[in-house]
Specification:
Helices cover 25% and strands 24% of the residues. It is an alpha/beta fold and 340 residues long. A 5-stranded parallel sheet has the order 5-2-1-9-20. Strands 13-12-11-17 form a 4-stranded parallel sheet, covered by helices on one side. A 3-stranded antiparallel sheet has the order 6-7-8. The radius of gyration is 21 Å and the shape is globular. The relative contact order is 0.16. The structure holds flavin-adenine dinucleotide.
């Protein structure tokens, strides 16, 4: 069997490695846009306080995957799925090629969610979603430090990633202002009491909190990108504005191929799309109840289950494991379990 996996995040790489064990006779190809190897996305939000991050974040080089018998097409972008021909078209170095499959697995993950009013201002803000994003932010930070200044950041969004990022930048010694539209932080995951404690921990680390502050967009004012609030531009001079407002599953490939998508790619409990030769898992897979399991623990469980299923070893349904997400905010532990 010829299995092609698009994506080299935890979903794609865990699946590829597991298929090598459960189905040794299968050919496994990982086709990915990435060039850095398989890295830990959770570690991105600790990418400022840790000096060793660039050595530690890559968990597996692509060469190591190739050595274990997985074919890797790196730096390639899948652009179309041709379902009747059972092939994926992709672009690599300006050339378009096709990769045939018997089973195709979409492990394409998610983009950062950028609210509509922010989109026209794209050059004025950054995001933290990939290792390339982290490296670019670290370069910007180094430029400011080389200028003998303390980097000054605006973080937009007080959800899990915005809080982790604010905490880590503050730990690295930077100035941070965290804007959040709602009256309390991480309101989707935390009970009121824990949100209050989280706010206190962040403030104690030097983060300035602007709760109840709905950012309207961004403007260039006196040569600087500024945060636009309800009453006009914030006068602070930020070296960088980072939008952290959630995630948006990458559904385009599936939609263009005529597969059913909603917020994510629609899959059944066997992780199959409506085309039985095409599966989806990870941040991009949406189940019948509307759930998307965008955390590493359930994604790993999906990948292990799917490897067995492809080898015709498992039962017919993936069952979500019990898991408890946690924010990696320095010095913060919640009293109550997280909701998700
Ligand atoms: C800053 C940050 C911190 C996080 N912290 C935690 C945490 O502490 N705990 C936790 O459980 N979760 C955390 N998460 C969430 C977790 O990282 C994700 O749920 C998980 O990484 C998703 O894995 P994935 O393999 O589905 O997708 P991804 O990791 O997004 O991988 C998708 C892959 O698909 C490739 N790709 C996409 N489109 C194409 C295409 N057209 N052609 C070729 N390749 C393509 C991409 O290049 C990438 O390799 C965090 C996320 C972020 C961004």
């Amino acid at each position: 069997m010829n299995i092609v996996i698009i994506g080299s995040g935890i979903a794609g790489v865990t699946l590829a490695e597991e298929v090598r064990k459960t189905c040794p006779s299968a050919t496994v190809t990982v086709l990915t846009h990435e060039t850095h190897g398989y890295y830990s996305r959770p570690l991105l939000s600790h990418g400022f306080s840790r000096a060793d991050i660039e050595e530690k974040i890559v968990l597996r080089s692509f060469d190591a995957l190739v050595d274990s018998g997985i074919a890797v097409i790196a730096g390639a972008e899948a652009v179309a799925i041709e379902r009747t021909l059972r092939q994926v078209r992709y672009q690599l170095d300006g050339t378009e090629s096709a990769q045939a499959y018997d089973r195709l697995v979409l492990a394409v993950g998610s983009d950062p969610l950028v609210p509509g009013p922010f989109r026209p201002h794209r050059p004025l803000f950054r995001v933290l979603n990939s290792l390339d994003d982290l490296l670019a932010l670290r370069r910007l930070r180094t430029t400011v430090l080389d200028d003998a200044r303390t980097p000054n950041w605006a973080i937009i969004g007080g959800g899990l990633i915005g809080c982790e990022l604010s905490s880590d930048l503050a730990k690295a010694g930077d100035r941070v202002t965290l804007f959040h539209a709602l009256p309390r932080l991480m309101e989707r995951q935390l009970e009121d009491e824990d949100s209050v404690r989280l706010a206190a921990v962040l403030q104690a680390s030097g983060v300035e909190l602007r709760l109840h502050t709905a950012v309207q967009g961004f403007v260039v004012d006196r040569g600087r990108a500024r945060v636009l609030g309800a009453t006009g531009p914030d006068p602070a001079d930020y070296d960088g504005i980072i939008v952290a407002c959630g995630f948006s599953p990458r559904t385009n490939l599936a939609r263009d191929a005529g597969l059913r998508v909603n917020r994510g790619i629609c899959v059944g409990s066997d992780l199959a799309t409506e085309d039985p030769a095409i599966y989806a898992l990870g941040d991009v897979a949406e189940f019948d109840d509307g759930r998307i399991y965008a955390y590493v623990m359930p994604i790993r469980s999906q990948a292990l289950w799917l490897a067995k299923h492809l080898a015709e070893l498992g039962d017919g349904h993936w069952t979500p494991p019990t898991f408890h997400p946690k924010a990696k905010v320095h010095g913060f532990t919640s009293i109550h379990p997280y909701r998700w």
